[in-house]
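B., you asked whether I could sanity-check this one before it goes into the benchmark set. Here's the sequence:
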Amino acid sequence: MPDILSQILAAAPQLKPALDAVPARLSVEHLENRASEGIGETDFGPAFYREGLERLLASANDEANLNVLGRLLIMNSARGYLENRLLMQRLRRTHAPELQTPLLAPLIVTGLPRTGTTFLHRLLASDPSHAGIPMWQLTHPIPRNAEDTPAQRLARVDELLALRRKLTPELDGTHLIRADAPEECMHIVGPSFQTRTLWNLAPVYSYQDWLSQVDKTDKYVEYVDYLRVVQATRPNQRLVLKAPDHVDGITELLNVLPEAMVVQTHRDMPEQFGSYMSLGRTTRKIAVNALDTAREVETTLKMADVSIARSTAAHAAHPGKIFDVKYTDLIADPLATARRVYAHFGLDMTEETVAGLSSYQKRNPKGKHGAHDYSLEDVGLSADIITERYKSYSAAFL
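And here's what the prediction gave me:
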């Protein structure tokens, strides 16, 4: 057994039965059958998801050099997404009233990863009139049955995150995740099989190349359905959402949900790229027999290239609908940044709002959960290379 797997089993011996049961190759039919057995349904809804699932599994099987843990991570994520598709289609078939819930215009934070999206999202969600969606509800937005209570769904996610901390304890210092805390809504779009979550789990190169470029209209049509289900549990609060996942699909997002208020964050590119490479490798390195650093860098650079091009085009397609925030401004004065966001979208900055945001800011200073150390040199790059590559972007947004 490779040394990395020995270390994993030493940290989490309870994984052994699951690892022993992982097939050598992952297949669409096997995953769909497992999901159907778990939910008791067979209708996965609109078939567009199949292309993403097929591309994901081809990438995982043939090019990612996954070890058995990597295959388990992809398999379990895909199965969970398929189960959510079955549950959503059950709601559609039964004309569930949740799907008719009026949406308060949501506030959606996006940007390249590691540009302050998490801090800004949780800051804005601390307004008492707003609601961030907790991790348990993002991953399990629809109960499996009448006995599947919010408390049970939270407990399942809590258990999964406890295992994550055993396998990658350093992640708390870079991106803290707790079952009951607001988290990225890329988890709720996972059932579309158009999500960067999968790249964060494993180096599925060709899948991510496809994902960056594909039209995401169908993904956002389904996204609205999930938002309505969540809004039904918080009918009087504005949903505040966040995911770098949206940065290459802002045009499609606003075409489908024109009332959305989109905030895009921007950061010095050498800092952004170094931090994102470091964060992603924390998980990818335990999922593979060996990382292909050159291809990993190439894929991540292409992600940034396409994201910048597509988000820039979204600004032109939807003038005034996207509010830009510089990372340096956000860190220097979070409350002033929030005031500018509210002013741009015509939101009321009440005394309760100020109190909520100020309290969050005081409780969560930068570096509260540990420092994140990284170096571009670790992946064969330099600040000069990244600065030169993205000088036009920096001139436009920084």
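One thing to flag: The chain has one domain: 3-397. Otherwise nothing jumped out at me.
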